[in-house]
Amino acid sequence: MNTSILKQGPYLIAILQAGQSDSDLLQLQETLLEQVGRFRSRGVILDVTLLDVMDSFATRTLRGIAQAVSLRGAETVIVGIRPEIAFAMVQLGLDTRLSGVLTALDLEEALAILNRRCREGMCRD
Amino acid sequence: MTDVVQITVRSDADIILVRQQARMLAKELGFSSSDLTLIATALSELARNIVEYARQGEIVLSQIRQGSRRGITIIARDRGPGIADIERAMLDGYSTGKGLGLGLPGAKRLMDEFEITSSLGQGTTVKATKWAR
């Protein structure tokens, strides 16, 4: 199952699907890193609204994507962690594993965060 | 009504399958949506441990009805290498694999009851239960 990646101006938006397997996530990581370079993207938004579970593997992979994207000169924002998933992540001890990664409530807020950072000169030209 | 489901786990696709099955069984028992997520998350960790360390094993999901009490029991069983030091394996952040070391202790926190037995070279069995509130 391929994750759809939308190009929105200087940003890439990846919408993760429910029932995505581990190998799908690893594939997403590879594709995103390549596209950040191809489109000279300033930011990546990972939308996890549709995920039914954020377990330790998903959390570790998303953190890895954010760190690698950052090494490619772009910023990552994770959006749409649902209330019950946020609670499960805290119970599991995963909340601190995403520290350092920007999170936002929804897509609109994520775009606003990225736009603000770019206005402040924190993005590539 | 099916109240016991047994699933062989050997790939990441099976992990998704057991999560879906557990959600269905738990939903029938009246678990809240946030409890369904806690159960699915715990199960995901246990199933992933099987795939990562033992390569293959099985998950048995059972609905429990005791009087007015409703619950779901997960048994995750494999004939893998076993765990040398269970006490350490239950500590946050300890892992001999590529994980974050939160799987077992995390799954324990997500469930109400949790037992683990393991012997080297014989395999590992985890039994965990969550009660509907």
The largest sheet of chain B, given as strand count, sense and whether it forms a barrel, is: 5 strands, antiparallel
Question: What is the CATH-assigned architecture of chain B?
Answer: 2-Layer Sandwich
Q: How would you classify the quaternary structure?
A: heterodimer
CATH homology superfamily of chain B: Histidine kinase-like ATPase, C-terminal domain
Order of helices and strands of chain B: EHHEEHHEE
Q: What is the architecture of chain A at the second tier of CATH?
A: 2-Layer Sandwich
Q: For the terminal residues of chain A, how far apart are their CA atoms?
A: 33 Å
Q: How many strands appear in the DSSP assignment of chain A?
A: 5
- Report how far the terminal alpha carbons of chain B are from each other: 21 Å
**The CATH homologous superfamily of chain A:** STAS domain
Main-sheet strand order of chain A equals 1-2-3-4-5
Name the poorly predicted regions of chain B: none
Quote the average pLDDT of chain B. Answer: 91
Say what the CATH topology of chain A is. Transcription Regulator spoIIAA
The number of helical runs of chain B is 4
Number of helices of chain A: 4
Give the CATH class of chain A.
Alpha Beta
Shape descriptor of chain B reads: globular
